[in-house]
């Protein structure tokens, strides 16, 4: 090999650290809250957030007059099955306990037979209260019932919004009833404005990596775009996951957008297709970008 060619590498956590330089946040401004029959609006300096009271969903997030989302956080347990999960060779080893005729003989049969792809949403509670002049709490409880009506997820969101525009989202999920043997995913889905297609993250990369195939990807700070993160699998499926992320920034060409962080390491992917399109497409020509980014 040529001089300087890397033949092996490793990363390890050092027993010491250099404290990060802490940049003090600006003093939060007071919040203005307006409520009508169908919507709760929270207004601060340079931002307006709106919650749909009939669904409990954050349905608008504007910064300096620019809309950043098409749909806010929703509990998500679904992703497009991978090719291996739709192949019959996985049937015998997939721990299938739900098998409804018409859903094939494959690993994903368990999910389709349970109705994971057809969750029915019901709002239970939507409440809010002012904590201080600069902080407000929105409390949302809903239930997502499996398509086969034999189980449900109790979902609880607690949004704390401050006068700087930061949102802290506490999320709790309790499964009840006859659940599938395993879930393809557990987390949140956002639909972002399609212009937030510049991606920067602190985690594993730069290529896609998965919980069972990630140690060959270095932890670092990477940049890409939603379009560049596309992986042209022969059979359309979920793709582009990045694991062990500390934070992710989704911004437009001017650097305006959203930053996501978690208390623990998290995984993410971002694509210009709807999850439904990725799930149903059998060939790549059937994939059609829509007016948003699935995150």
Summarize the topology:
Blueprint: E1 32-35, E2 39-44, E3 47-52, E4 57-63, E5 66-67, E6 69-76, H1 109-114, E7 120-132, E8 135-145, E9 151-162, E10 167-177, E11 187-192, E12 198-205, E13 218-225, E14 242-251, E15 257-268, H2 275-280, E16 293-294
Short descriptors:
single chain, 295 residues, mainly beta, 5-stranded antiparallel β-sheet, 4-stranded antiparallel β-sheet, 16 strands, 43% strand
What's the short version?
This protein is mainly β and 295 residues long. The strands form 4 sheets. It has a 5-stranded antiparallel sheet, with no helix packed on it. A hairpin with a 2-residue loop joins strand 4 and strand 5.
As a whole number of angstroms, the C-alpha radius of gyration is 21 Å
Average predicted confidence as pLDDT: 95
What is the tally of beta strands?
16
> What distance separates the N and C termini?
40 Å
Strand order of the largest sheet: 1-2-3-4-5
Helicity level: under 10%
How would you describe this structure to a colleague?
The chain has helices at 109-114, 275-280; strands at 32-35, 39-44, 47-52, 57-63, 66-67, 69-76, 120-132, 135-145, 151-162, 167-177, 187-192, 198-205, 218-225, 242-251, 257-268, 293-294. It has a five-stranded antiparallel β-sheet, with no helix packed on it. The chain has a four-stranded antiparallel β-sheet with strand order 7-8-9-10, with no helix packed on it. The radius of gyration is 21 Å and the shape is globular. The protein contains two helices and 16 strands. A hairpin with a 5-residue loop joins strand 14 (242-251) and strand 15 (257-268). 4% of the residues lie in helices and 43% in strands. It is mainly beta and 295 residues long. It starts with 31 loop residues before the first strand and ends with a strand.
């Amino acid at each position: 090999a040529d001089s300087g060619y890397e033949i092996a590498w490793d990363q390890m956590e050092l027993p010491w650290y250099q404290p990060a330089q802490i940049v003090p946040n600006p003093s939060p401004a007071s919040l203005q809250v307006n409520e009508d029959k169908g919507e709760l609006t929270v207004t601060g300096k340079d931002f307006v957030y709106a919650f749909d009271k009939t669904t409990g969903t954050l349905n608008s997030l504007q910064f300096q007059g620019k809309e950043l989302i098409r749909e806010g956080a929703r509990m998500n347990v679904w992703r497009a099955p991978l090719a291996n999960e739709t192949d019959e060779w996985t049937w015998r080893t997939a721990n299938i306990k739900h098998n409804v005729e018409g859903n094939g003989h494959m690993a994903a049969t368990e999910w389709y037979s349970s109705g994971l792809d057809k969750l029915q949403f019901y709002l239970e509670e939507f409440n809010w209260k002012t904590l201080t002049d600069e902080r407000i709490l929105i409390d949302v409880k809903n239930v997502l019932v499996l398509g086969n009506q034999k189980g449900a997820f109790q979902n609880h969101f607690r949004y704390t919004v401050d006068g700087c525009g930061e949102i802290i989202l506490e999320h709790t999920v309790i499964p009840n009833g006859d659940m599938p043997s395993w879930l393809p995913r557990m987390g949140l889905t956002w639909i972002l404005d399609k212009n937030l297609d510049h991606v920067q993250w602190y985690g594993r990369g730069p290529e896609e990596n998965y919980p069972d195939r990630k140690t060959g990807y270095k932890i670092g700070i990477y940049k890409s775009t939603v379009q560049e993160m596309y992986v042209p699998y022969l059979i359309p499926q979920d793709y582009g996951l990045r694991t062990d992320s500390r934070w992710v920034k989704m911004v437009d060409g001017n650097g305006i957008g959203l930053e996501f962080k978690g208390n623990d390491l998290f995984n993410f992917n971002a694509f210009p297709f709807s999850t439904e399109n990725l799930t149903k497409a059998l060939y790549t020509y059937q994939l059609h970008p829509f007016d948003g980014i699935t995150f």
